[in-house]
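Let us walk through a complete example step by step. Step one is to write down the protein sequence. Step two is to encode the small molecule, zinc ion, as a SMILES string so that its atoms and bonds are unambiguous. Step three, shown after the inputs, is the structure prediction itself.
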Amino acid sequence: MTRRGPQKFPGASLRYWYQDDFGGDAMEVNVVVLHTTECRTVPSYEGGSNAPNLTAVPDFGAEKLKWYQHFDIDISSRALANLPVGVETNTLNVCQVELVGTCDPGRHHRWGGGSPHLYWPEAPDWALRELARFLAWMSEEHDVPLSGPKVWKPYPESYGAHNGERMSGRTWNGFKGVCGHCHVPENLHGDPGAIDFATLIAYAREYAS
Ligand SMILES: [Zn+2]
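Step three: the predicted structure of the complex.
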């Protein structure tokens, strides 16, 4: 596998780098999978054993996302479930991004207004634009199409095997573009919920053109 294109997202910190510990499979990425961490800082990912390729942390003062990279772009990461039978998930040419914050309205409420955090279904414009810049880069450098599923259900409706938006194995095997953990087969998680995907992709197309 040739692993074409730059393997580090410019500006990303390598402070929590896990590829030396976990290796991973070489791929040519054609999918970005979005997650939300359901916490407010960079998770430890059990020492990296369930880490994505990148984590994006909101900096509310600067109105920027601070990026941490854990694996090369074209190396498989570890944030998806994968059953022994069926399709491949982590290793099926996907680059995974964990967005620090929540998609859960209950958690958002519990965290409350006194604690700055990103509730991704109501992400401020700057956060969507920052994420869109990454997607535009993935399109330009790694040919990931700036398109994806129409339906992004709110959490907790988005949870479970039969959430009405999860792809079949066959659809997943042919998919190229941007989707959520909630769309990946063999998985139950409902993140990143009702992110404003139409606006996100519109911004990404603007930056990519
Ligand atoms: Zn997830």
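Step four is interpretation. The helical segments are 19-22, 45-48, 105-111, 125-142, 169-174, 197-208.
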